[in-house]
Amino acid sequence: MSLVCRLCHAALERTLVDLGDMPLANAYLASAEDARSERRYPLHARVCEACWLVQVEPVVDPGVIFSEYAYFSSVSSSWSEHARRFAAQAIQQLGLSADSLVLEVASNDGYLLRHFASAGIRVLGVEPAANVAAVAVAAGLRTEVAFFGAEMALRLRDAGVSADLVVANNVLAHVPDLHDFVAGLALALKPEGTLVIEFPHLLRLIERVQFDTIYHEHYSYFSLLSAERALAAHGLSVFHVEKLATHGGSLRLWATHVGQGRPASRQLLELRAEESRSGLDGAAPYDGFTSRVERCRQSLLDFLSDARGRAQTVAAYGAAAKGNTLLNYCGLTATDIPYVVDCSPHKQGHLLPGSHIPVRSPGTVTENRPPYLLILAWNLRDEIIADMAHIRQWGGRFVIPVPEVEIT
């Protein structure tokens, strides 16, 4: 049976990259015993040649992935600061006040809503992971534990809940039923309200060979072109876009209901033109991506082989989902990288999925003094290098693996 696009329902016949069978990127293991029952699933990214949405097949039910989650947004200081700046910007630009309501879909641990709440603005979060939502609730942030979609948005609207600002940060990629989700966004938004969506930019993924951002919970990978098509299908119109440095290069779209009279900004027109020049509405940028991914893998394997030949240990920093894609695609284990450190206590003491590399606290690096520290969470490279700068004291160096090995 042929696969069809989740946006336009055309047949999916073109491959971006096939990464083989992979474990779930955030399914950290509590013990070696758990590793015996670990499952792997196909991870094959395809390109729709009708609407140019890149997507993976939904081989795992979202409830399995998201009902309990290992990622807590507030752990990253740079991401928390990113959220604080956006809240201040939105409050000023949209004139939000105590009479306003901000609804965030996939609100995680309240990393963003707390900034609106502290400004006296009403907030509501929707978060499917009960363990993560509990942190927000404990902080006094109203949060519903549920998957968001049209049915929930209708229930909220029937209860008189309609938002002046709806925020969906890094969640659009996480929904297998794209139309149900976007329909829910439109239903939850006041007629004159504003929708803000952030997501990693497909153009940057391709340009910078960010193949490790592909994993099962990321069902879709958006360009401005495909995102605008998804929103337009439900009466939403983008009027402005910002380019962000987060997650290796992201977009922040500002949208309203069609007919609100918001003209397209200069930045939006320029990005449309940039994507057109890059050929994202044709096959050329997608072809050849697999060979670039293979070169990236070989670059890392060559570096590790050289370090092993010189009896030099390579530890890693960042028990991140993207790191798990990279490690498993390269076939690496604790024999190659003895441990990874992470500042999240929710991951420490566990084993990484697939590779079964143990996760330890950052203090382990100081104790063991490895010559190299491989930064798996490369989107936070500046934050990590600053936090771990003391490895320079013993001649330690940082290694960035994507798009090819960089030693700094």
Give the fraction of residues assigned to helices: 25-40%
Number of E-state strands: 17
Average pLDDT: 94
Beta content comes to: 15-25%
Radius of gyration: 21 Å
Low-confidence stretches: none
Question: So how many helices?
Answer: 14
Structural class of the helix and strand makeup? alpha/beta
Query: What's the N-to-C terminus distance?
Result: 48 Å
Strand order of the largest sheet: 6-5-4-7-8-11-10
CA-based shape:
globular
Biggest β-sheet, characterized? Answer: 7 strands, mixed
Give a nutshell description of this structure.
The protein is built from 14 helices and 17 strands. It has 408 residues and is α/β, with parallel strands linked by helices.
Give an overview in words.
Strand 5, helix 5 (130-138) and strand 6 (143-144) form a beta-alpha-beta unit. The protein has helices at residues 32-35, 62-66, 77-94, 113-118, 130-138, 150-158, 178-188, 202-207, 224-232, 266-278, 289-309, 321-329, 363-368, 381-387, and strands at 14-22, 41-47, 54-56, 101-105, 122-126, 143-144, 163-169, 189-200, 220-221, 236-244, 250-257, 314-317, 340-341, 359-360, 372-375, 397-400, 406-407. It is globular and about 65 Å long. The protein starts with 13 loop residues before the first strand and ends with a strand. With 408 residues, the chain is α/β, with parallel strands linked by helices. The model has no long low-confidence stretch (mean pLDDT 94).
